[in-house]
Every structure is written in structure tokens, then in C-alpha cells.
Fold:
Amino acid sequence: MRDDVGLVGEDLHLGYHGKQVVDGASIRIAAGEVTALVGPNGSGKSTLLRALARLHHADAGSITFPDGSSAFDLSAKDFARRVTLLTQSRPTPSGVSVRDVVGYGRHPYRSRWRNDDPDGHRAIEDAMDVTGVAAMADRAVDELSGGELQRVWLATCLAQDTGVLLLDEPTTFLDLRYQVEILDLMRDLADDHQVGVGVVLHDLNQAAAVADRVALLDAGRVRSTGTPAEVLEAVALTETYGIQIDVRSDPHTGRLTTEPVGRHLKRLA
Structure:
């Protein structure tokens, strides 16, 4: 395994227009693991993820690879060969085929004046196969459903062929089938390809099911990190989200389940 696979953010301070939104956060995206960032809206999850992808300026702190090299010392192209980010939304090009959009992910490997990318065809075809969009390769992306388009954008990220994949709420707006497929794909990438996956999730049960490690953010700080069982704990979740959250573990599978308790919702048995 290469020693540059993975990503570590240390003591990151991030803000917008002079207002600090992330205060001294540290997080590690390890090779072969899925790390889920969870927390309420406004807790800094997406900002932290964007900072790891060098899309948000860090006022202080460091972002390094496990070999000790700094992410800030790399050119944009070299960094894009190591780390890619699937954002919450991207503009949909009109009249462009799925295959060509997936090909956008090969930009770090292509020269400025000619498409000198001998591995490009293989990477594009593999990415479409893995995400299940190969059958629609010649369709225009602006004709696709939301779920289909999300899988195309994920294929674009996979075609970039990086050791770190960052995903910002990838299951949002997808129906149940595609949510499960995206979660399964994250596990496949970590387990079978040793990709370090960092993902922002709103659904705590999805985080419990898919993640090796969870980072719970609260008001711009990382309140706790660890295994799902260590982090997704009733007291901490209740305090962080400001609503009673019950947590139980299935006695047969050991799988965690979380349930917010409202005025009209029964508590877990």
C-alpha cells in the first residue's frame, strides 16, 4: 500500500467573511476505511470536508498525507491525482453524454494541449461499470433522473482514480434503492480498493451501518471521534442535536439504531 494514501487535517480553523465556523477541528481519513462526519446543520461538516479538498481556505491548521507531505505544497493537478470531492450539487451540462461527463474526471492526467491519457479509457469504463451507468453511456446527462445523475457524478469522481474520495451528502434526494447502492459502493471502495472515504451524512443510521469511524461535530468543533458504537451514544447525541435521541444495539447483529423522540413518536423498546 502506498504511504501517501489517506488524508489528515489537524487543528483546522475555517470561516466565512471573518466569522469562524470550524474551530480547531482535527480529522483523519484513513486508507481502507469509511469515515462519516455527522452533526446538526451548521456544525461545520461540509466546510471541513471542503477544506480537506482544498476548496475552502484554512485560516490555520495543516492538511497532510500520511507520508508527511503537505497538501498545500502540491500543484492543483498533483493534488487532484490524490483527492477528489463529490459536492452536494453540480451544474448539469446540456447535451453532453454520460461518457464525456465521466471523462471530466480524467483532467489531472491530461496535458493542456492534448489528451495524453493512456489509462483514461479503462478508468472511464471501469467507473461507469462500478456505478451502474454504463448502459446509459451515450445518453445526454440533462435527460437523466436525479438518482441517475448522482451516480454519473460519482462515476466522474471514480474516474479520477484517487486514493481519497470525499462525499458531501451523497444520498440526499436519492430514493431508497440508490441510497443503499451508494453506501454499498463506499464500502466496496474502502474494502476492495483501499480508498480512504470521507463522507458527510445526515442519517445517523446510515453512518452507523457504513462507517468504520465517525466524527461528531458540534458548533464547529469535533466533539468526539471513534467507532460508531463509541460516538453514536445517546447522551452525546441528545446534547448535540438538542432533542432526545435513543440508541440501541441489535443483540444478534450488533448494529446500532438511533431514533429521535418527538412528542408523537414512541421511544425505542
Q: What stands out?
A: The mean pLDDT is 90.
